[in-house]
Write a structure and sequence with these properties.
Layout (H helix, E strand, L loop, with lengths): L1 H16 L2 H28 L3 H17 L16 H5 L11 H6 L18 H13 L5 H12 L2 H17 L18 E2 L6 E2 L5 E2 L3 E4 L5 E3 L4 E9 L3 E8 L3 E11 L8 E2 L4 E5 L16 E9 L4 E4 L2 H14 L1
Antiparallel strand pairs: 1-4, 2-3, 4-11, 5-10, 6-7, 6-9, 7-8, 8-10, 8-11, 11-12
Length: 329
């Protein structure tokens, strides 16, 4: 009887802290990752474009479509959106054309990827196959794929982001790179509140684009995500600072550091909870300036939409990651 009551109590607690829909959501997400991976590898097998580049393009497009109002939201298995004029051909009188032959005649790039005789913009396999064949025109190695990406997107930053995504997928061999970690040790003495958008005066009138986490000098600072180090060095505002781009195209900004973890360099990949530096008070002046304010970590988050980048409030994310990191212990 005691064991039965114990089991019931555990189940009750699980429903409080891990609701059933969370378990269901995790299961559905994993199934979605598996289905995507099957499709990426299928297209790789016929085009020789590495699956991790196909996954990277797909993820990039899914990200920008989720934050852009001028693009339709993704509804299928994949997130790649190819405009009708590019798919069917700019001069094609039928902008809903699905005939591979007439699409080719009018200079469109749309192709039939699943062998049903139609080139459909709404078909995941057709879209991914079309993108892979577009890149195939340039080659299958990284340098030539980068050329193909630039020809398609005409934006250096987009090419860099997609290459970073591909590097992450290739290294960790999984599509699930959503884990996060609080940036400071949970047992450390720290404090923070929501100050995003507050006024700042040094160097000219501006707003505070982050959350300040106050802690002692030298307290470890950890990566909050899987990502690639995109920026490392000195900034007159942020002092010794470091930027990490994650798989959701969010740029994580760590500033006022006392220093960096040993051997950490641009282009390195990091994972949640990996040591990247320590808390300091650097900044507000030329390289080496420190001590103009109490030691703290300035933590910012920025989103890129394929055209521009803007900051958003990291406070609710930090609170959630703090809870999640505590639950890992």
């Amino acid at each position: 009887m005691r064991n039965f009551i114990h089991i019931i109590t555990i189940c009750f607690l699980l429903t409080l802290f891990y609701p059933g829909n969370v378990f269901a959501a995790d299961s559905e997400r994993e199934e979605l990752y598996q289905r995507r991976m099957v499709l990426y590898k299928k297209i790789e097998s016929v085009t020789f474009i590495p699956w991790y580049y196909l996954a990277a393009i797909d993820q990039y497009e899914r990200n920008i479509r989720s934050v852009r109002k001028d693009l339709p939201k993704p509804t299928g298995l994949t997130g790649i959106y190819i405009p009708a004029e590019k798919w069917c051909g700019l001069l094609n009188p039928d902008q809903e054309d699905t005939n591979p032959l007439s699409i080719k005649i009018f200079g469109g790039i749309g192709q039939d990827g699943n062998g049903d005789g139609k080139a459909e913009r709404t078909n995941d396999e057709d879209v991914l196959y079309t993108m892979a064949n577009y890149l195939l025109n340039f080659g299958t190695d990284e340098d030539h794929i980068k050329i193909g990406l630039w020809e398609y997107y005409k934006r250096d930053k987009t090419v860099g982001i997609i290459v970073s995504f591909a590097k992450m997928y290739h290294t960790w061999q999984t599509l699930n790179l959503e884990e996060h970690h609080f940036p400071l040790p949970i047992r450390a003495n720290f404090s923070y509140r929501d100050t995003w958008g507050d006024a700042r005066g040094w160097g000219g009138r501006r707003i505070h684009e982050g959350t300040d986490i106050f802690a002692d000098y030298g307290v470890n600072v950890y990566s909050t995500c899987y990502g690639v180090i995109e920026m490392k060095g000195w900034n007159k505002y942020g002092g010794w600072r470091l930027g990490i781009r994650d798989i959701n195209n969010t740029y994580h900004y760590f500033a006022h550091l006392n220093g960096f973890a040993k051997d950490l360099k641009l282009g390195d990949m990091v994972k949640p909870g990996q040591l990247i530096g320590s808390v300091g008070s650097s900044g507000y002046g030329p390289p080496g300036t420190a001590g103009k304010f109490p030691p703290h970590l300035h933590y910012g988050m920025y989103k890129d939409n394929g055209k521009t980048e803007w900051s958003f409030d990291p406070f609710p994310h930090l609170k959630r990651w703090e809870r999640e990191t505590k639950n890992k212990k």
